Amino acid sequence: MDTRTVGCLGGGQLGRMMVYAAHRLGVRMCVLDPLGESSPAGQVSELSIKGSFQDAEKIRELASKCDILTLEVEHVNAQALEELHLKGVPVQPLPFVVKLIQDKYDQKVHLQKHRIPLPDFLKVDSEAELHEIGEKFGYPMMLKSRFGAYDGKGNAVVSDAASIPAAWEKLGGKAGKKLYVEKWAPFKMELAVMVARGVDETMNVTMRTYPVVHTVQRDSVCFTCLTPPVGVTQKEQELAQKIATDAIKSFGDARGIFGVEMFLLDDGSVLLNEIAPRPHNTGHYTMEACGVDQFEQHLRAVLGLPLGDCHLRVGGAMMVNILGQGSTPELTAQTMAPLRCALRVPDAGIHWYGKDGCVKGRKMGHITVTGFTPASALEQIRPVLKAVDGEGNSSSIEVPHKSSPSVGIIMGSDSDLPTMKDAAVVLDDFGIPYEISIVSAHRTPEYMYEYATTAADRGINVIIAGAGGAAHLPGMVAALTPLPVIGVPVKSSALSGNDSLLSIVQMPKGIPVATVAIGNAANAGLLAVRILGAANPGMRQKMAQFMANEATTVEKKRRKLEQVGWQAYLADSK
Amino acid sequence: MDTRTVGCLGGGQLGRMMVYAAHRLGVRMCVLDPLGESSPAGQVSELSIKGSFQDAEKIRELASKCDILTLEVEHVNAQALEELHLKGVPVQPLPFVVKLIQDKYDQKVHLQKHRIPLPDFLKVDSEAELHEIGEKFGYPMMLKSRFGAYDGKGNAVVSDAASIPAAWEKLGGKAGKKLYVEKWAPFKMELAVMVARGVDETMNVTMRTYPVVHTVQRDSVCFTCLTPPVGVTQKEQELAQKIATDAIKSFGDARGIFGVEMFLLDDGSVLLNEIAPRPHNTGHYTMEACGVDQFEQHLRAVLGLPLGDCHLRVGGAMMVNILGQGSTPELTAQTMAPLRCALRVPDAGIHWYGKDGCVKGRKMGHITVTGFTPASALEQIRPVLKAVDGEGNSSSIEVPHKSSPSVGIIMGSDSDLPTMKDAAVVLDDFGIPYEISIVSAHRTPEYMYEYATTAADRGINVIIAGAGGAAHLPGMVAALTPLPVIGVPVKSSALSGNDSLLSIVQMPKGIPVATVAIGNAANAGLLAVRILGAANPGMRQKMAQFMANEATTVEKKRRKLEQVGWQAYLADSK
């Protein structure tokens, strides 16, 4: 469809997945990689060059075969790219951005100038200076290499003054390596956002931002990502997207996709950690979860094609990286175990990178599981996570993300529980995860506010609220959440639930409560199932089956009455 | 992950997409195709052989390089496959099935023996015989080549006795080509189902069936596919899946994926049309819409890996084929137009096959658009369909499938319309497609039954039902559909809607109606939006925005009251 050839510096797994996207668009690719045509990307690209992406000569050779240059790794010869760019060769992202990102300290100075919130940081040239900074920043603090760091390599935690010499030594300070220090960010979670920057037909900048993911590191390497991130409020997600977008805006006319890693602090503020000027591990989930994945989006941005839509096509997605295990280049059973396991997991996308030989800790592949909700994705990926750590450790494995039930059952008082339990029984029957709690509009108004305003962010899809008498709970909760709220009027002693019913059903225009019959919490549970099945054929089928079973039950009673007559029937039911 | 090499006879687009799937699983592939390494599949596979898949020598060469043989086209040298298989080379699907399918007449005889419902068919050896059959079957009838037919080539419609000589000539009857006749199947729609047949660890057969798609042909070539098929009942879909599954069961130990094309007749019966023993055009939608696509499923089946889940991960999907246009081998703007257009369509998966040169009518690529519902997929793909036919014809293009609204608004009487219109206004504001109708439980009970039982099959996600007085409509509709039903008690003159409210809300256990306030159809519309947003973050965001706007409106009123005082405020509102 597009007759251009894209040259890519680097031929690893990111390049490989970029080649797949190029094929779909009809774009040709040539990769430059030390492994040439046996690199993961070289195996599938139309052309490849064997050589270092640091080698100016090879980069010029690549440029001679291509219409535009891009990259899948930032540790390239940016000088060579700059020279080519000055001679009129299109390079995206622009070489100055690649240079800026190569020097983590300069990157931070640039972002600070553009008012992007960051952890405090300082250049450090000697051990003595590091002590001074320790006094200022407090401990722990992070000592980091300015150049060439990735996957936690080139970072050291300085836990106290006594550990300064070891950290200084470890990162090569003595050998003259350029280092800098970052104040510790006391984050409660790490977030990441992919941002695409392209141009429209009139060469005006266009930007698209993917959803926020919660990322979990293990030994400083990305282990899992979950989206939407459970336990992160809508406001926090919007803040993270805004900071990521603002940061990429600071890169002028640079185009492509950018991975932005951030810290979410306890107070809800967000600090930028670092930026990758290319597809990123935290964006792999887009292959299954979004209309256009990060690789195609990168190519669209670089080539000046229209950017694609970034929203989630599914309710939730979780990715886990598969790292090499064992000490031999052979693929051990342990490395393969999560992949073999994933073959049995519904909605698991398996991605093997085709790397020659296995190295411990090397990214060999990844698996993304999608679900109707983030909770269902989490639930389904559990056996794969177990397999990552091997059967022996299976008891210790914990899903590294908060899970969330689909339905919240709440009631104004524990006296409503004998009624409300019927909703729980129905949800158990349908296998739908729920939480159940006491939330009183009148006695715990602050908690009610908190419960209702955070429910959607916690992954809840439907709320069932029961209350009696003045029965304000369902309506107040509905006023505080965009979720559907089902109201159960609990039978009161004074007015037999008439009061509860009218309090719940007679809501003003603007805020609906889905009201069921007095005391009929079972129907509230069934309505929740119907709501979850509104756009879910599988769930709808389960409801149809339930209704067929109910019909059979009545059918049996009918036959019995017709056979034994009313006297025997009544005598029997006594 | 799997160290085996799969050999594939044929290297077209189906082979190419099979190679992508193989890569993800870590499986190597070698393709045999006349175009060798420049064939669509050869461009991306690890190995390729240039040669005909009819050439026994080349097939043996392929076998020598591979652990198992399969195919992406059935017009291969089945004899050569059979000989290899007898010598112990694994071949899947089994050669006897390939042979059976190559002869369309024998295929039908085999399926008839296994009691698969088919249009009547007969062998025909002379023009005279064809006249006799015409007397028996009636006209029109289908004259078909037994061998080598595809994409409508090798088929001729015999519209009456007078057209027999021309049809006989066209299909080569005179030249001794083997033909047979099929009685015309007066179908209302064409359906297709992909069926996978594999084995478990103990080599027991396992089968998985994908959802039913509605396929539309143009000039006898697959043009579009929609799933779930709008206007096909659940029962009809289950019947189509059962017939497809039964047909594939008849193939003994053969493994792989099979495309089964069927006719749906007016009376709801289903006849099998034909079977392809490989991935199929009608299964392309699985790439975006299902957890495991047809290509990976085929490899899993052939290799004896566990079969993957077949259910839809999205609410709906529609595929359109992009055929070569124009009379030159150059890619014309018209051929490219739908692809360029798709770059701007949300959730459009673009697949270009990388074929060298363009031939009119040749499959050059395809586009699949997914949506929250089949209706939204249909709506989104509309500009792509327009682009297929060129801008000049844009007024004439019609989406070749029934569309379906998301919400059904129904009421017992037109006297309810002044109330119920408020629900429509809300849905218009939120951009949600709806249908609106009069359905009376008491005056049109049959129509109510039909409306309620077909709503889900027609693509409706939520029903809003308004009624007054005895107000049976919402409850009766809820009893006949697994969809969520919202009840609006319309204010009655006798009891001010108290009667309507109690009739609607006091449903027995088992069948819930989500009841809103008396006369408050706007809240019913808003509740429908919340229900559609229960698992759809985008829709939920729209609801949150609506609630924020409502708050702003009240805020303004509050400020005005505080500024002007109550006297002026009331005077102003008069």
UniProtKB/TrEMBL annotation, chains A, B:
<dbReference type="Pfam" id="PF22660">
    <property type="entry name" value="RS_preATP-grasp-like"/>
</dbReference>
<feature type="domain" description="ATP-grasp">
    <location>
        <begin position="108"/>
        <end position="303"/>
    </location>
</feature>
<comment type="similarity">
    <text>In the C-terminal section; belongs to the AIR carboxylase family. Class I subfamily.</text>
</comment>
<keyword id="KW-0547">Nucleotide-binding</keyword>
<keyword id="KW-0210">Decarboxylase</keyword>
<dbReference type="Pfam" id="PF17769">
    <property type="entry name" value="PurK_C"/>
</dbReference>
<dbReference type="InterPro" id="IPR016185">
    <property type="entry name" value="PreATP-grasp_dom_sf"/>
</dbReference>
<dbReference type="InterPro" id="IPR011054">
    <property type="entry name" value="Rudment_hybrid_motif"/>
</dbReference>
<dbReference type="InterPro" id="IPR040686">
    <property type="entry name" value="PurK_C"/>
</dbReference>
<dbReference type="InterPro" id="IPR033747">
    <property type="entry name" value="PurE_ClassI"/>
</dbReference>
<keyword id="KW-0456">Lyase</keyword>
<dbReference type="Pfam" id="PF02222">
    <property type="entry name" value="ATP-grasp"/>
</dbReference>
<dbReference type="Pfam" id="PF00731">
    <property type="entry name" value="AIRC"/>
</dbReference>
<keyword id="KW-0658">Purine biosynthesis</keyword>
<dbReference type="InterPro" id="IPR054350">
    <property type="entry name" value="PurT/PurK_preATP-grasp"/>
</dbReference>
<dbReference type="InterPro" id="IPR013815">
    <property type="entry name" value="ATP_grasp_subdomain_1"/>
</dbReference>
<protein>
    <recommendedName>
        <fullName>phosphoribosylaminoimidazole carboxylase</fullName>
        <ecNumber>4.1.1.21</ecNumber>
    </recommendedName>
</protein>
<dbReference type="InterPro" id="IPR000031">
    <property type="entry name" value="PurE_dom"/>
</dbReference>
<dbReference type="InterPro" id="IPR016301">
    <property type="entry name" value="Ade2_fungi/plant"/>
</dbReference>
<comment type="pathway">
    <text>Purine metabolism; IMP biosynthesis via de novo pathway; 5-amino-1-(5-phospho-D-ribosyl)imidazole-4-carboxylate from 5-amino-1-(5-phospho-D-ribosyl)imidazole (carboxylase route): step 1/1.</text>
</comment>
<dbReference type="InterPro" id="IPR011761">
    <property type="entry name" value="ATP-grasp"/>
</dbReference>
<dbReference type="InterPro" id="IPR003135">
    <property type="entry name" value="ATP-grasp_carboxylate-amine"/>
</dbReference>
<dbReference type="InterPro" id="IPR005875">
    <property type="entry name" value="PurK"/>
</dbReference>
<keyword id="KW-0067">ATP-binding</keyword>
